[in-house]
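Bench log. Compound arrived from synthesis this morning; before running ITC I wanted a structural hypothesis for how adenosine-5'-diphosphate sits in the protein. Inputs:
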Amino acid sequence: MRSITKYTVIISGKGGVGKTTTTVNLGVSLHNLNMRVVAVDTNLVTPNLALQLGLPPTPTTLHNVLRGEADVLGTVQLHQTGLNIIPAGLTLSNGSSRYLGNFRQALEPLKGSYDHVLLDCGAGLWGEVLKSIKVADEAIIVTNPELPALVDALKAIKISEKLGVPVKGIVVTKFTGARYELKDETIRGILKGYPILVKVPFDTNVPRSISMRKPVVSLKPNSPAARAYRRLAASIIGAPFKESFFSRAKERLFGG
Ligand SMILES: Nc1ncnc2c1ncn2[C@@H]1O[C@H](COP(=O)(O)OP(=O)(O)O)[C@@H](O)[C@H]1O
Ligand SMILES: [Mg+2]
């Protein structure tokens, strides 16, 4: 029986870099590799995990769990992709995490029922983001190949280290390969030598998939971004990554 549940927090410091996209697509890819996965929207002020997946508002959310009004297992929504989701409440009147209960206590009952609990954080490095980092077994840092994103990513790394949460590595998203973008050595140099787990190319299939309320790995599994997320999931569980001959040939010819 599989009983070890790994809590992974997805953080960046900066907003808009691709955390929710990473959570969703990593989550679905892990599910497709037979992992039991639940993605939790710990972005309590501006949640959008459920919105990205087109899930309708639910009667109970993480906010209710944190207020002691609901059991966390009862808030789990099964998305058509097979990914389990714990949404956060959408209205502003839900209040910030300052007034809400303990994350560890709220998320503890997930232990044993899932292989992976992915915590999709909001921007910034305070409040519920710190609470999310504290419950995690490891952190994945999402960033973009430009200085403002990397400076915030470095802060996210330092905070994880300070809180004793190991940093698994870096997911660089939205790279185009343009000459002005920071190169891998520079990124690793700024981010204290942590490994780049995967580089997710800038891919218009991502915003297109979001507009269709579907993860890109489901909508376009062979698109460049989807392949990167599938590769990330495989590497996280040590599974081989199988790509079609056509995808490999296309990448060699056109760079992905
Ligand atoms: N690989 C990508 N290529 C192109 N656009 C992307 C990619 N990843 C994310 N985006 C876009 O970036 C925006 C922010 O993504 P999101 O995952 O919501 O970031 P965050 O959760 O860090 O705020 C979205 O509009 C999304 O479509
Ligand atoms: Mg987000």
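What the model suggests: DSSP finds eleven helices and eight strands in the chain. The pocket of adenosine-5'-diphosphate (ligand 1) is lined by residues 12, 15-21, 173-174, 200, 202-203, 206-207, 210, 225 (CB under 6 Å).
ITC booked for Thursday regardless.
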